[in-house]
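Chain A, query sequence.
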Amino acid sequence: MLWLSWAALFALAASWVVANPLMASPDEPAHVVKAASVVRGQWIGPDAEGGSEVEVPRFYRMVTAYPTCYMFQQDATGVCEIDVSAGPDIVEPAVTPAGRYNPIYYLLVGTPSLVSNSDGALYAMRLLSAALCTFLLALGFRAAAETPRPSWAVLGAAAALTPMVVFLSATVNPAALEIAAAFALWSQLLTLLRHPDPALIGSRMAWIAVAAVLLVNSRGLSLPYCAVLVVAVVLMSRWSALVEILRSRSAWPSFAVIVAGCVSALAWVVGTNSLGSGGATTRPDLTFGVAARLTIADSNAYLTNMIGQFGWMDTNLPPWLHMAFAACAGSVVLLALATGTWRERAVLVGVVGTTFLLPVAIHSSQAVYLGIIWQGRYILPVAVGILVLAGHILVDRMADAPCRVGAQLATVVGLALAGIQLVAFIENLHRYVNGEHGGWFSVTSESWLPPLPLALVIGGAVLSSAAYAVLIAWIARRQQPASGPVLPTGRSRADGQPFELAAR
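Chain A, predicted structure.
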């Protein structure tokens, strides 16, 4: 189950790896330089104007100029004729704004830079990132498949994977790891606590530890995001289930790993001051109140960015596609709100509110130092939880609905979501091949072409989108094997929440 899910999701993300010119994603040059320095033992460099100074092969300093050919120019193709050739032994200083970021992600994806100083190494770094992130996404889908009614859980999981999540997974950016790890943690914790199985506590907790450690060590804000996630899941679950997990000795090693990972993450943030603004006021006009009003006014732009805004925020999806995705995702949330208990509704609304209000608090408190810099993708680790929570609410609340209803709904919505992923891919590819307003069915001498034949890239995207739709439909129709007779769903008189009474 896990590996089949990973194969389908990796194929979906791998299509994006070659469909974008190198460095054509937010801050990718900074992260490539950081990765090339970390794997060479430079976990953090001295402060310099614009970030931290590190020593890397000349190639990795030169490729940071790639985006100047097409960033913020919607009608520019992905063609870039900057000469980045350099001898393999030439090492030069480079400045990266990501210099103080936690090194774990970069240790994992930076190894190709040790083998080659070429464009091939950059694509390999993207592929490694895609493999890691989609594996975490697959953990989330496997957790959905382990619920009593997988069709409802996978419906929420699929709706949580916006085209932006897939796009970021195919780039060199720790935000992709943060989002994927958060998705895995949301899904696995909800399955662990709302659908407990004593025989699976040890294995489930082991994968939860992996997701949690990678999450908190991905970016500076990951620790508070993780705290929001854990609080929301605990409030959605029975206390007795949590106590049972805490008492299980098979879970203790995983708890120790999680605590060590959180301590390590906190030590890095505090020790490097990676969340610090430098203390220099650059925008005194952006008081907290002014910045808060601007942030709230930009909520629609942040939502658009969360669904799909590619390149350097210069490649937009058509409004109808945003509306189609919103219809699919919104139907899941509305159905959960309509059927959930008051506590479940309160938690779900609380996570929605946190998704929109937390950026206001964070952004407004730092605007006088950093200016207006917030992007919607920064809050995606919390936002994906809205859909995952909604799916798990439906698992319990739609217990009386025929299984075929959930399976059919998940199949139809899954097919629509897979189609949205494919259209988003084609829109992005077209922007770089011929420009935003260029022709759709012609390739000229000025067109950009990916490193693989164009027909192969498009064909691969079609097949991977179809595989993604099949994955959703397969999980939706999957019947959970029972280890013994399952008694009817009961209701705890202590808190009014439903739970499964399974034979021990």
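The two ends are 24 Å apart (CA to CA). The first strand starts at residue 47 and ends at 48.
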